[in-house]
Amino acid sequence: MALRKRPTTFRSDRRFDRQLRLGGWVSLIGIMAVNAMGFLDHDTHSGLGCGANWPLCHGALVPTFSNEAVMIEYVHRLLTLGFVVVVGWFLIRAALRRDMPKLWTRMAQSLIALVLVESTICTAGVLWATPNALMAFLAPIGLAAQSLVLLLLIWPQSTDPTVNRRAARPTIQVTLVLMALYLYLGAWRSYGPSHFPNATAVHAMGGLVALSALWWGLQEFRAYHRLSYSVWPLMLAPLLANLSRPSLLEDMAIYFWVSWCTGALAYQWLGLKGHAQSEPLRVNRSQTAANDRA
Questions:
Q1: What is the pLDDT of residue 73?
Q2: How far apart are alpha carbons 279 and 287 in whole angstroms?
């Protein structure tokens, strides 16, 4: 009887996997640097530091760094270019495997789409007078792209990434949507005072995020599962009505907080650490007794 050849798995070629992980880590660090620099760029009002010129800066490939705004905007553009090159190599390298899971491929396609949309909005903001309501999409889109890069990176390290990827409860999806709306309203308000969204609207949306996360936790507890500790920072959402902060330290603290929240939500939503892999908090004693009697 002829033995069937064992199919190539995602982890079979260790050297190839190491290269993929390296590309994934560099891509993750790159997009985090781009997003963090974007927060700094916005809060220091350096978005037009290179003038209404793109892709050149003040009509030059390497401008004269006459002020802080020019340096911040130019570094932001360089980081973006570097990220696009690295993540392109990472995705092409992974596509050469030809045995990537379908969900991984769909996430990669979604990442490409988000990067293209974000780049289009950024370019429009430099070249033309773009409404704040449109520019505010940069925050949720950038953080969504960052979460996708994280998921693409940790996918090979998951013991069984196909388990329960559809088992995420509707509450997780609702929390994810509310978080995206919260980021959008907070980013919109950070562009300047306006009648809408005001601080009350952002606080209210943050309260909905916290209530949704709390309800999610209660559902997990009733189902004898332990809610991941990474989700509890969502409870801070009602306290923040503006994503813009005057100091660099506060700015980076806000960035890492929203990065943590969006990454944790995306991780739970896709089920890479789903309900079947959760640890039980308590034992249903009646069920245990019935099993013993049987």
A1: 94
A2: 17
87 contacts 27 by C-beta, under 8 angstroms? yes
Distance, CA of 207 to chain centre: 21
Sign of the CA dihedral 55, 61, 62, 66? negative
CB 172 within 8 A of CB 116: no
**Of 127, 157, 187, which residue constitutes the final position of a domain?**
157
Question: Average pLDDT per run of 10 along the chain, which is 294 residues long?
Answer: 45 65 92 93 88 88 90 94 94 81 88 95 91 93 95 65 48 89 92 78 92 83 67 85 74 91 85 41 43 52
Instruction: Give the residue numbers spanning the domain of 262.
Output: 161-282
Distances (CA, A) of 170 to 65, 140, 166, 176: 50, 20, 10, 10
pTM for the model: 0.82
Q: Look at the chain and count its residues.
A: 294
- CA 223 from chain center: how many Å? 28
Domain assignment present for 45: yes
Q: Are residues 38 and 148 in the same domain?
A: yes
Query: Residues 270, 184: one domain?
Result: yes
